[in-house]
Amino acid sequence: METKISVILPTYNEKETVRTVIGETAKNVSLLKEIIVVDDNSPDGTGDIVKEISTKDKRVKLIQRFNEKGLTSAIWTGISNAKGEYIAWMDCDMGMPPEVINKLVDELSGCDIAVGSRYAAGGKDTRGFFRRSVSYCLNFFARMMLKVKTKDLTSGFLTVKRDVFSKLKLSGDYGEYCIRFLCEAEKLGYKIKEVPYVFKDRTAGESKSEAGFFRFGWGYYKMIMRLRAEGGKKMEE
Length: 237
Fold this sequence. Notes:
alpha/beta, 41% helix, 7 helices, Spore Coat Polysaccharide Biosynthesis Protein SpsA, Chain A
């Protein structure tokens, strides 16, 4: 029996891209079992668009949250409700091509976690110089400080075997969760494979401001230092 794939799309105010992302995912992902959209009660009507799509394609499911917000918890809500043996997630801004999920799934025959990577050989980040440079430097710093092999620790574009979540959960704000998840997975001995892809900046909707970009970067830095401190304590024990 062929393994089925659940794709999770966390959304907040993505009315300009959600229809395209769902359509491209449904068209391009082989062995797709379901697309789970976890929407944090977007005031722009993202949820209404997903409801409309779900009436025509039963693989599309909407989980609309009214009392909880946040990227990490949205992804975890999707994981907790997923029925597929492989679980993928990605942003809903069209920066991550849905067809790459097939390449990630192919790698799971020999690993536990496949990461869409901007920094593996052949990968590329096409954003402006400032954002591209900050992101690269943060990932390089994280890799050196935490002594891990994974190059794109803030990817947010992953496909994972379901049983990995029996030992690992997601925690941390925004992209911080990805650093912790991949770092802890390496330390536990899970096999991780990076698959190169070309990341594109969003062409519709709103990107984070530079102030917001710095704020999230500071959160990443604190997470890196926290993980390093936790690793040091374990070595002392």
